[in-house]
Specification:
Length: 579
């Protein structure tokens, strides 16, 4: 079992020391009282001396006491379970909370390199598996240990010789449990990893169901799913097989212990060395003594699964977060919009170069259009401006401040983004619009909606602005989703704008109106416009033509057309395609 992971789990448990202490106390008290019942049962049996000679007067208080002890024991076990539930689900809540907090601080590089489904599997499925194992551990582990120690004490007080028979044979249970436990951890870990892979595949398939159906890729997807499913089946069968043989194996050894005690006790009873009542008590103790070994071995296999899942969760929690803002980081309340890139080098992987020696100076209020073929670095440039990634060399500054010395929150607050890919959350239309300005008034929301031309379709919705939309816009059309994202920008009015093909999903008539609204919005604001349709950026102050991460041409539309270079060929190719 992974000792490092166990230490981390114990660290989380240590926060709830009061519940842990109470759980141990209740477990000890209930176990000791449960062990007292066989003594009372043995005394009651000894009251039955012979046929027609039953001492009812002596038996009555003994049975009354036994009933009271059983009731108290049950109550203490109920209190113990409450404490165990408190510990388990508080620990699970803390781990999930920390995992989600870590996801929010992870660099974009991590999210780009891991499937969403796999990350979700760690936070949801693995934590659930962990909680089940942890709860079983608390419920049975403490009571098991106390029961073992208690029965050993009581058995020694009754008869040392028979106790030795029990003690000599019982360790076999531990050896069997340890052997099986050593096999199960790696198998449960493989099961958990394969389950994460399956979740990731299903998440991807559902998210891209239209593409799957459009390209008739159902059969290929089923083949791939079946392959993952078969691997999960094999991993699960191996893990469950080893964990399931623990119980019968230890029960077999327990049966040997019970038979040994019965045999030795019967011989001693025949010679008058022990009464029938005491032998009955001893047999009950022998059964109770071996039972915790059986339960603990079962707990160990469950804990193997729990620890394997916990290891995957902690891998996520311990991932390197984004570099924190420095203590003396600058807070930009309202940026002027002067942006400068000096000698910027950047690549996602060292072996594949992308942006090299990139230089650009943008003055307040200028409109900068970025054009170029797919993969030239347009979106990468946006990621660098927003500091989703940090440059490898060189610097990017806003109003003379290197953005690495500016708090991420204040930097990103000064940018308004509308991308091809819409960003909408599960909630009302209003909640999605006011994300950038939570304190917006109803009048401001309506004005922004009218400016973005989303007002018409919003008013046609069943509850208007209070209509709840599902994840990623639910049943709204792609164009309506895009209009909501544009409305969000129209409401917050940030000093700098990033528009990445912002009107690509909107009909031509609405697009013309949106372009006019954007034109008004961009007045006095520094704007970066990524465009694939070059007809939309002719009015830009600067057009950057990128290729292979470098600016190969720069100037206004008229200047670049007169140069008759790469831009002119790109523009004419689109124009000829249209006509």
């Amino acid at each position: 079992m992974n000792k490092k992971t166990i230490k981390k789990v114990l660290k989380y448990i240590g926060v709830y020391k009061i519940y842990l202490a109470l759980s141990v106390i209740f477990a000890a008290a209930s176990s000791i009282l449960a062990l007292y019942v066989p003594i009372l049962t043995g005394e009651a049996i000894d009251c039955i001396i012979d046929k027609g000679r039953v001492d009812f007067n002596a038996m009555k208080p003994i049975l009354t006491e036994a009933v009271i002890v059983v009731i108290i024991t049950s109550f203490l076990q109920w209190l113990m379970n409450i404490c165990n539930n408190k510990i388990t689900y508080n620990v699970v809540r803390d781990i999930r909370k920390e995992a989600v907090r870590k996801i929010e601080t992870l660099p974009l590089k991590y999210v780009d390199n891991h499937s969403y489904g796999e990350i979700v599997s760690r936070v949801v499925a693995d934590v659930d598996q962990f909680s089940e194992g942890l709860l079983m551990g608390f419920t049975q582990f403490f009571t098991g240990i106390v029961t073992i120690l208690g029965t050993l004490f009581f058995m020694l007080s009754i008869n040392v010789k028979i106790t030795l028979v029990v003690v000599i044979v019982t360790p076999l249970s531990l050896f069997v449990a340890k052997f099986i436990a050593s096999k199960t951890f790696s198998m449960f870990k493989l099961q958990s990893e394969t389950r994460g892979e399956q979740t990731a595949f299903v998440d991807e398939m559902i998210g891209n169901l239209k593409v799957v159906q459009a390209y008739s890729h159902e059969d290929e997807n089923m083949e791939e799913f079946d392959e993952i499913n078969e691997r999960l089946e094999k991993a699960s069968l191996k893990a469950i097989f080893y964990s399931s043989i623990t119980n019968p194996a230890t029960r077999f050894i327990n049966g040997l212990v019970y038979a040994g005690v019965a045999f030795v006790g019967a011989l001693m009873g025949a010679g008058g060395g022990i009464t029938v009542g005491r032998l009955s008590t001893f047999l009950s103790y022998a059964n109770q003594y071996t039972k915790p070994f059986n339960e603990i071995s079962g707990v160990i296999t469950e804990l193997q699964n729990a620890i394997a899942c916990a290891a995957r969760i902690f891998e996520l929690i311990e991932e390197e977060p984004e570099t924190e803002d420095s203590d003396n980081a600058v807070v930009i309340d309202e940026a002027q919009g002067n942006v400068e890139l000096s000698g910027v080098y950047f690549s996602y992987t060292p072996e594949r170069k992308l942006i090299e020696d990139f230089n650009l100076k943008v003055k307040k209020g200028q409109r900068v259009a970025i054009v170029g073929p797919t993969g030239c670095g347009k979106t990468t440039l946006i990621n660098l401006l927003m500091r989703f990634y940090d440059v490898n060399r060189g610097s990017i500054s806003v109003d003379g401040n290197d953005i690495r010395n500016v708090t991420r929150h204040s930097l990103r607050k000064n940018y308004g983004m509308v991308l091809q890919e819409t960003w909408l959350k599960n909630g009302t239309i209003r909640e999605n619009i006011i994300m950038g300005k939570p304190d917006a008034t109803e009048e401001e929301i309506v004005a922004a909606s009218k400016a973005a031309h989303s007002y018409g379709f919003i008013k046609r919705l069943p509850k208007g602005y209070d209509t709840v939309i599902g994840e990623d816009g639910g049943s709204l059309s792609q164009g309506q989703k895009q209009l909501l994202c544009i409305t969000r920008i129209m409401l917050s009015l940030p000093p700098m704008l990033i528009l990445d093909e912002a009107t690509s999903s909107i009909d031509t008539r609405t697009e013309i109106r949106i372009q006019q609204a954007f034109a008004r919005l961009m007045e006095g604001r520094t704007s970066f416009i990524v465009a694939h349709r070059l007809s939309t950026i002719r009015e830009a102050d600067i057009i950057l033509v990128m290729k292979d991460g470098n600016i190969i041409e720069q100037g206004s539309h008229t200047q670049l057309m007169e140069k008759k270079g790469f831009y002119e060929k790109l523009y004419n190719s689109q124009y000829s395609d249209v006509h």
